[in-house]
Amino acid sequence: MRSEAAPQSLALGRDHYRALVLRRQLILVALVLALLLSLCIDLALGPARFSLGEVVAAILNPDAVSQQARVIVWEIRMPVALMAMVVGASLSIAGAEMQTILSNPLASPFTLGISAGASFGAALALAFGVAIVPSAIDYIVPINAFIMAMLTAFFIHALSLKRGVTVETIVLLGIAMVFIFNSLMALIQFFASQQAVAAVVFWTMGSLTKATWPKLWISLAVLAMVVPLLARHGWALTAMRLGDSKAESMGVNPRRLRLEVLVLVSLLAAIAVAFVGTIGFIGLVGPHIARLLLGEDQRFFLPGSALCGALILSIGSVLSKVILPGTIIPIGIITSLVGIPFFLFLVLNHKKASW
Amino acid sequence: MVTLQLDRLSAGYGRRQILTEVSTPRFEGGQVVALLGPNAAGKSTLFRRIFGLLKGGGEARIDGATTARPVAYMPQDTGVNAILTVYESVLLARMQGRRLNVQPEDLAEVEQALDELGIASLSERDIGDLSGGQRQLLSAAQALVQRPEILLLDEPTSALDLNRQISLLSILRRLAREREMLIMIALHDLGHALRFTDKAMVLENGRLIACGPTAEVVTPELVRDVYRVTARIEPCSQGQPQLIVEAAV
């Protein structure tokens, strides 16, 4: 079947592939630059406004700016701005790999019940002061949220190990978990005081304002630990998108990989949700945007998902300050309101069918 | 040279036994072996068992292999859509178990596999845009790019037009000879088996009922007993045996 023009089309194949790789590398660089810009803008905005030049000076040479600017930029705004990026990246990676291993475009920390579990854990602490494990007062809410998120994840893993459980079943189980936790949340709100209900509702909207340096370091450490472990499986994860039987024929063990990755990304999502509350949208949309921009080769898709998630949440953080001057709107609301129309635009304008 | 011998090979799913003690003589690199049998005879199960995806009794003994992963397997399933080009999806098959960075020799290997199967011109197409036949050729390329010493192909011609069926089988036969590769092909077309394969093994209800040189195995009696059709086998004007099917029994 060798075609007569073979040598020519062979060279074209490689040239095209090289061009594809180069284009993706450039897109990744562009995303990094956009992220840096968004970070600077995020740092500049707030009750005290700085110019971008002042922000850059405060970052690069803190001793050269006034003490007030230094404190505001480094102590108050930096943890929040960086938290937006780390949480965005974590949720987006979690969603990307859930979609990959479950072959389902709807999979995300939210649809698998992990966010709902976290909300339930947080609500227990906020409404009744229940600490699932004894912990420092500042950390009862996030630790409760984290434990419930991980318990949910392990419950789903345990069920998914049963014979005959398919990826579709796993997604169904996740959605069942969402409904169970929603009912439990309603029950808590029914019995809790009005003040506690308000606290629970605010928590579930998702907010970056409670970010502190220690919380940031914890989230960043988990992200830095999980990403290399996922990257190690880059080729196998890409193969998973062709379906189990194709992946198997390439030497991948889909069940084992699915389990390992599910544990890793649950950890990532649980940490993120525990600290900032439910920001459901990122885990769904970050990976879809990355997929449209970069394709599904994990060498580009994984960092691309992280960058897209970080960028969306960072832009969300900026918008949450500028829409109503003087008020910081909970970021979960912003990302959904602004992000979903953008997302619909992308999906409807994309001609290639991938699912 | 690589050899493969099945020794009382069994396999099943759960309690359901599919393959029962399949034993064959030793097959050698350079040979093309047809795996024949009606639907649900256990052909795919045999491939999955040899490839190591299923556990069970007996052994598929491979000797003389020079690489750590000598066997490649092309399943019937040609995979679902993803945003990957043809080129990328062949590279993906090549890179499994390797490092993340791609070397020039990996690209050369991809291009050779695409070229062998005549789909180099499709390199930059998205796999979602391919026809059924093109997907099947892509699937074959994904198996070939792994440089197997033993290649298991599960009905590789089922979606191909007549021209491409003949081309693919001729290419496989040439590659088997050139690379001293042992190729096992599950086929439904007995005419193709007679023309393109050296040996044939026939499964029925998970048991091996015939095995040997294809011309000796594929007989009117076997066709009647296993496939339940009456047929004649006659030499064509060029002396090649032809199967002429008459009627279902």
Description:
The complex is a heterodimer of chains A (355) and B (249). Chain A has 14 helices and no strands. Chain A has 355 residues and is mainly alpha-helical. Chain A has a single domain, classed as ABC transporter involved in vitamin B12 uptake, BtuC (Orthogonal Bundle), CATH 1.10.3470.10. The longest helix of chain A has 39 residues. Chain A is globular, with a radius of gyration of 22 Å. Chain B is of the alpha/beta class and 249 residues long. Chain B has 2 domains: 137 residues, P-loop containing nucleotide triphosphate hydrolases (Rossmann fold, 3-Layer(aba) Sandwich), CATH 3.40.50.300; 56 residues, no CATH class. In chain B, 33% of the residues lie in helices and 29% in strands. Chain B contains 8 helices and 13 strands. In chain B, the strands form 4 sheets. Chain B has a 6-stranded mixed sheet with strand order 7-8-9-5-10-11, with helices on both faces. In chain B, a hairpin with a 2-residue loop joins strand 2 and strand 3. In chain B, helix 3 crosses helix 4. Chain B starts with a strand and ends with a strand. The mean pLDDT of chain B is 93.
Give a quick set of tags describing it.
heterodimer, A: 355 residues, ABC transporter involved in vitamin B12 uptake, BtuC, B: 249 residues, alpha/beta, Rossmann fold, 6-stranded mixed β-sheet, 3-stranded antiparallel β-sheet, 8 helices, 13 strands, 29% strand, globular
Poorly predicted segments of chain B:
none
Share of residues in helices of chain B: 25-40%
Write down the domain tally of chain B.
2
Gap between N and C termini of chain B: 43 Å
- Biggest interface pair, counts: A-B, 41 and 52 residues
Percentage of β-strand residues of chain A: under 5%
How many beta-strand segments of chain B? Answer: 13
